[in-house]
Fold:
Amino acid sequence: MKLVVQVKLTPDARQAPVVERTLHAANEAATWVSAVSFKHFRLKGSVRELRKLCYGELKARGFGAQAAQHIIKRVADAYTTLRANIKAGNLGPEGSKRRRKAESKPVTFRPDAAHTYDDRCLSWNYDAQTVSIWTLAGRVKNVRFACSPAALKQLTAHRQGESDLIERDGRLFLIATIDVPDPEVFEPKGFIGVDRGINNLATTSDGDNHSGRRLGRYRRWQARKKAELQAKQTRSAKQLLKKRARREARHATHVNHKISKTVVAVAQRTERGIALEELGGIRERVTVPRDQRARQSSWPFHQLGAFITYKARRAGVPFIEVDPAYTSQRCPRCGHTERANRRTRDHFHCRRCGLAGPADHVAGANIAERGATAWVFVNMPDPVPV
Structure:
């Protein structure tokens, strides 16, 4: 299983300007290669064709062979991703304003965007916690990095492949890829169903509820502060807006990490699997009032599911996604499904058998039941040929 580990570079006063200048120059060169690609091939530039057009110029700008190859590949990968998003409809239907804007100009790269380094350009010394990194001014050695003991242990044992150098808020970071072996998945004795929502971020079939009330107050406070800054329309206000956006994103990530860690720990301790709703396209399927659109669109549902998925995989916990249709309207005891079973958002009451309880808890129970059924079908042995 491939994961990433982030470490903070702590270069001295002589090393820092050299590394930063190299990163900015690499992104400036990537923007130039992107313009060449767009001029000649629109959105369909390939590594092979771009190498013919741009490799010589990149070498003349002082980039080494490996650095030039990585710049060209980054540009080609960016256009591949853009074409995939257009094909998937993520930028809207054909003719929409957002799609026309994406198709009408070349991809650009921020000065502090991530640049790729392979083992020829970047070498690690785990004992001394230093790296040796290629720059436009030559090889810079003994650049110190800082990370937790757990991250250092993972790097030492499992680091493989390329690493990305990125600048964030004036600080330099390296994002390294690690390949952790998957543990053997145990046979589950049952399933925990997890219902995701906005007011209740996650509710399990066991009745554990991770409420979003405190988070809601935090996000409303952030929204008021952002509105005050937007009204000023000054340069410093715009910088503060970006800073607040990153802080809010970090907070959401932290909350999702805590919830996913708790769910996976309970499943592992009780030797059960985890069942989640498949919520792809939820923002397109669900219509909410105007005053709730920002609230629904800003919470990272997918991130919570991704965290539960990879943590379950690391722990060897069985995991499966199920159809979310009518999970909050179906009675888990008698199977009766009716919209009137859930007259309010928070309360469920079956009109046939009288089962009543919190609606999110009932949905979690239905998800757990579907997970157990789906697991049997997925892991059913192939039939013996006649």
Summary: The chain is about 45% helix and 20% strand.
